[in-house]
Amino acid sequence: MTDSLWHSLEDLREMPQAVDLKQFSGLLDKDVERLTAVWPNLPLTARRELVHTWNALAEEDFELDFSAVFRMAMRDQDEAVRAAAIHGLVEDEDIRLVPQLIEVLTQDAAVPVRAAAAQTLAHFVLLGEFDKIRPRPFNLTCAALTAAFNNPDEDLDVRRRALEALGFTSIAGVPEMIEAAYAHPEERMRVSAVCAMGRSADKRWAKIVTREMLNPLPDMRYEATRACGELALAEAVPALIELAEDVNLEIQKMALWALGQIGGKQAQRALEQQTRSDNPVLRQAAHDALEELDFFHGDLSTFFGPPTEFDGESEANWAEDGGSLDKKLRVGFGEEDFDEEDFNAENEDDLEFDEDEFLTLYLEEDADDDEEDVWD
Q1: Under a CB-based contact definition with an 8 Å cutoff, are residues 217 and 187 in contact?
Q2: Ordered domains of the chain (ranges, CATH)
Q3: Which of 82, 136, 139, 146 is least surrounded by Cβ atoms within 10 Å, i.e. has the fewest?
Q4: Full-prediction pTM beyond 0.90?
Q5: Residues 207, 179: contact at Cβ < 8 Å?
Q6: CA distance 257 to 262
């Protein structure tokens, strides 16, 4: 971190250039302390612009790490700054974030901030599903999100973001929550239900998501298109090829992505045709999707050996209708079937969320404690 950048930030006669703000990636503790001292004195517009710029830089370059500045900014007095900072932590896997995010979800006064916390907690739900974090924080995360969704007094945006996060897990009650959300009178909640369907890797939702691809609402078409890709629905390929010509560019791009996830000769031909599109954005999206298609649906025996039967899916239909990537990986690595009843029986206590008990036990923990201290 150069002294000139610090002086520029402290004086703030003008905003630092985005290229200079990359220096805030991977801050040392001493620099975090210095920024923490400077931060409250910065004008509100500057704080908002800085957090926005750091988010944009992180999206452009995954090697940049602004987690330290986002952790500091998530305590800002301004709700827009807090929400943007929490969104910036969406890929952070530090387990010590879980109690902090649950505190925000249950305690913050601002709806956008609570909604952002629910969205960021989704990453920890996914990590828990892949056994990348311990059961205790996973269960507490799911319980807090479940409580938020089931709270009739909670704002709709918070409830629907909580449902989207829970879409990644197969714990008891989630399919029923998705069904209830899809029957909700508010369109926004139904859109989130379709998002959760895609994340579930459960093909019980196939008819719904394929039908919703024809919905006149762009948000619903977008989520349904993504869900078809996430669920690897081969029957959706013809409709996805049509959506690649949608009037909405984002839906077009998502349709190409979904084709790359599903694979098959028809999808491949459609993607190859789109690589000659007049639109450079669509050309790039088609190239990216073809790379995904080759990775997911190339010669899997290179990685796993010949595919074995799983849930009635044989080698013959592996490439065309092989289910989700998660399912394919579990076949390849020989993982045993997940027993949901055993899981729920073993973790019944952890799935009961007592907000007062949680706040008492976890929110007073020293932020510097290691994972074992916090969760054991």
Answers
A1: yes
A2: 233-337 (1.25.10)
A3: 136
A4: no
A5: no
A6: 9
